[in-house]
Automatic annotation (TrEMBL):
Gene3D superfamilies according to UniProt: Alkaline Phosphatase, subunit A
Family of the protein in this entry: Belongs to the PIGG/PIGN/PIGO family. PIGG subfamily.
Name of this chain's protein: GPI ethanolamine phosphate transferase 2
Residues covered by region (Disordered): 779-801
Keyword Endoplasmic reticulum: yes
Compartment(s) where it occurs, according to its Swiss-Prot or TrEMBL record: Endoplasmic reticulum membrane
Main location: endoplasmic reticulum
Membrane-traversing stretches: 434-453, 465-484, 550-567, 579-603, 623-646, 700-721, 827-848, 854-878
Membrane topology of the entry: Multi-pass membrane protein
GO molecular function: CP2 mannose-ethanolamine phosphotransferase activity
Described purpose of this protein according to its UniProt entry: Ethanolamine phosphate transferase involved in glycosylphosphatidylinositol-anchor biosynthesis. Transfers ethanolamine phosphate to the GPI second mannose.
Keyword Transferase: yes
Amino acid sequence: MVYASIRWLRLVAGNLLLIVSVLVFAQAFFPYKPFLQGLAQHADYHDEGQVPAPPQFDKIVFMLIDALRSDFVFGDNSGFQFTQSLIRSGVAVPFTAHAVSPTITMPKIKALTTGSIPGFLDLILNFAESDTTSTLATQDNWLAQVKQSGKKLVMFGDDTWLKLFPGMFERTEGTVSFFVSDFTDVDNNVTRHVNPELKQQDWDALILHYLGLDHIGHKTGPRSQHMIPKQREMDGIVKRIYNAVETEAHLKDTLFVLVGDHGMNDGGGHGGSSAGETSSALVFMSPKLKTLNLERKAPEIPTGEFTYYRRIAQSDVAPTLTTLLGLPIPKNNLGLMVEEFLPLWKVDDQVKILNTNARELSRLISASYPEFDKLRGESKCREKPSELESLACIWHTAHTSTSPEEKMKLFKKFSSESQDILTSAATNYDTDSMLIAIVIGFVSLGLFTTAWIVDGIQGSLFHKLLFWALSLSYGGMMIASSYVEEEQQYWYWAASGWGVILLVRELQQGESGLKSVIILVLLRIIRRWNQTGQKHAGAQDISKDFLSHHPIVLWILVFFSYTDMFWRLKRNLETRHSAIVGPVMSISPVVSSMLFKLSMAALDQRELIPSFLMDFAEGFAKVSVVTQAQLVFAILFIIATYLVLVRNPSLKGTNASGVSRIQPFHDILTVFIATQSRLPNIPVIWFFNVMMLLLDDMNLSLLEIILTGLTMQHVAFFALGNSNAISSVDLSNSFNGVSGFNVGFVAFLTFLTNWSGPVLWTSGTVLLMSTWMARQRKQNEKESKKVTDDGKPVATATAAAGTDQKTTGGMMDTYLKYAEVMSTFRAMAMVAVMGACMALRMHLFVWTVFSPKYLFAMVWTGVHHVIVDLVVAGLLHFTGA
């Protein structure tokens, strides 16, 4: 008893230390960047008595279309026909705006409004709907400059603006940005304000943030049938606004800006650093811009991947807008005035503008590198200057030059080089805390390692060495960015290697090896089901390229998948006293879930529905999909309640068919996961259950079962389309059954949507351990019935009681061994990821590869490992044992 208590204490302490190390490292690795307080004033950047350059516009309409990738506006297959006509006529000036990773809405709004580059922590804050630490109330931005000048702002659209700019707007209506199932109402709620506001004369800045196009991308991708109609709808809004600017007298000095906060990748996601995600459209529109003679060809052929016209930094928007509006450039701005607009001013004013931009950047250089002030005060340039000395030389030369053209050239050069230095500067990491976190992680790992050294986890030496080879090689892999990006390949090879080992095991036992061969074939199929990672993300796969063109094949597979779910539930819900329960309770969740997926496909992915099913699908889709999803969840909840309160208490270990008590829980989890999965992935869930059935018949040892579960959790994660890129996070099923935004429930569904494969394999592993324990009990019973040579039974009644006690102890021992093995691997993986992030914190890909990997590792450890692998698995284990 004391020994068991020590093991429990070690398990709890080790995992608590692991969580502490994760949180401490995250705080040190993702510091919240401080900003200069207060608002900039013209006097800050102009000599006493100098008059700033006059404004070119009095008002601004800022129309942000979420995920407006550059080709959506500028490409051949674009729905923005009116916008393209404005570009050809010269009244619209187009750019491709480069969005620095992470390409998520909140950080990108910050970049567009402040001109700074937000920290990676903003990615986390982007998902925290109740967060207030992300506010820009105390940070300078062009909206605050408009407000400071005594003007009024109104905003309609994404409620992220309300969190960032509290109390800033005279009128507003926010819409929830994460309700991705909504393509229409979320935009209609913005559009209905457009005409009334264009008639109003009391505002000076009108901000519109449309979300529908981004939602379409998340649900069905950039090539969705909904994409072009949505682009045409948005182009119609552009036409409506531009015509008002042309015709309404109070809007004659209005600048109209159309912009995207980020783009999207081929899968419709964003957050990463691919060309599609970082390339957004940017168009400045006004009849006054005709004088610039900047007529462009439209549609245009890209000069690079998603690069149309000139590529500028997203941070360049803030200084350009404030200068055009005659306002001070915000503090902390790293952007450059877009030089295409300089001819709107006289030469002397152009010099003032560039001088102001350069002086503002020089202050940031001085704040970051105090020695720059001394170098700037020197009157001569060095022969072989350092980076800062070169900047000081440019500064001095620009201010001593008498030629306006030379001054402008030098100010541009100074600003450009300053921007490069400031944007490439490393984050001020708290390395001491990072080291402390890694040490705590090592202590946690050491505690779990004692389970192998002191307790001697049961299993052959070969399997123990295999576990440590898997753990150590995985940890070592974290030091290479390309391996992190393509982690799925590691797990595919590991699973295939394990399948070969199982095949050899079968053959050595005199069996045909057919079960292992089937598992290897299924592994090969699911490996090609969804191409993920970075290098092959756009390559052909079964899900996108075959099933989308052969919807009949898809629905045959889906039908067989749901049929398998039905037969499993029917068989495993039956008892000798309630045979009617099985058919009734098994057909209802399966049919309702399949009809729900059919309705969702009719609304979002019509190309996945065969023609003979289309009329039925459209008819059923008239029923609210929210109601349909709620019906599925309600039925599954009722079945689970029945199992817990009525059916399982009457059973002991197994039902009449000899099935484990936890098998029905696994079956209803399968239906739930199918409901939360993308339609083309439902057959993969069926394949997983087939593999579990084959493994259950192979009489694996406990350590073999745990190794299989550990490997297949990771295989399942990647096989269903996930990767270590933020853009792979799937929100398409995060709002199933949700009529309004509920952060807790949506977070739960988001996790289940993206970690559905690992969760299913956790349940499957517990199920395999349950049947392993049943075999152990049978073996004990056989041993207890043996007789000695004189015919007397070996086991007496007292011994039999001891056997029952041993079985109870065995149940606890089995779970502890499982938890210790899983905790050892997770601690090893977490320490390796933390070590890689610290060692490579100056690496070029630290924010595009290693930071996202750390976020995924946090979820693997804090949510999946602790909650699913330990708590939920423990509840299932002790329920069904």
